[in-house]
Amino acid sequence: MSEPKPKQDEPIKRMLAPVRLEFTVSAGRDKTAFLGAIIEGRILGGRCPSCRKVYVPPRGCPTCGVEMVGDIPISDHGVVTTFCTVSIPFEGQTMKLPYVYASIVLDGADVPIFHLVDGIDAKDARMGLRVRADWRPPAERKPTMESIRAFVPTGEPDAAFDTYKEHL
Ligand SMILES: [Zn+2]
Predict the structure, then answer these.
(1) Do 51 and 68 fall within a single domain?
(2) If you average pLDDT over residues 112-116, what whole number do you get?
(3) Phi, then psi, of 163 in degrees rounded to 5
(4) Are 87 and 153 part of one and the same domain?
(5) How far, in Å, is the centroid of ligand 1 from the Cα of 70?
């Protein structure tokens, strides 16, 4: 973006100052287990001992402020609760437009994860759509959610709104 040149006595009100910050995050016990399972094609959650909600990935319960219990196996099938259709190009864009990015509550979890939904026309994306993880081949998996290429429709009937309305 080109900036207009300020006049001689006019104060400069803004300037472009690109900032880049690189940092390393320690995954910690729960995320280490979660990411190790992702490499194996499994998804783990953690249950809050107080409110009983299951979080994916496991993390301290933000409501109760307590540690999660256990590595709970979570299905790689779930339901689209909300979604957005991305149809505007942006820098670093790798997906063919338009595409769908969704909030997905996996079966057995109480909070959604966010991932790409593929295998469906963007215009056909909808709340309640049943989807499953499309895992990358084992040799291509890394400790990242990109080990799931995308979520794709299962072909099952859509989930009834009442079954996921608490997870919006
Ligand atoms: Zn809780």
Answers:
(1) yes
(2) 97
(3) -80, -15
(4) yes
(5) 14
Q: Are residues 82 and 154 in the same domain?
A: yes
Helix (H, G, I), strand (E, B) or coil at 106: strand
**What number is the average pLDDT over the span 100-105?**
98
Other Cβ atoms less than 10 A from the Cβ of 113: the count is 20
Cα of 71 to ligand 1 centre, how many Å? Answer: 16
The CA 73 to ligand 1 mean position distance, Å, reads 18
Q: Quick one: what percent of the chain has pLDDT higher than 90? A: 73
pTM score: 0.84
- What's the mean pLDDT when you consider all of the chain? 92
Neighbours of ion ligand 1 (CB under 5 A): 48, 50-51, 61, 63-64
Considering the domain architecture, whether residues 36 and 58 belong to the same structural domain is answered as yes
- Which structural domain range is residue 33 located in? 27-74
Tokens of 94: 């790798």
Q: How far is the CA of 44 from the centre of ligand 1 (A)?
A: 17
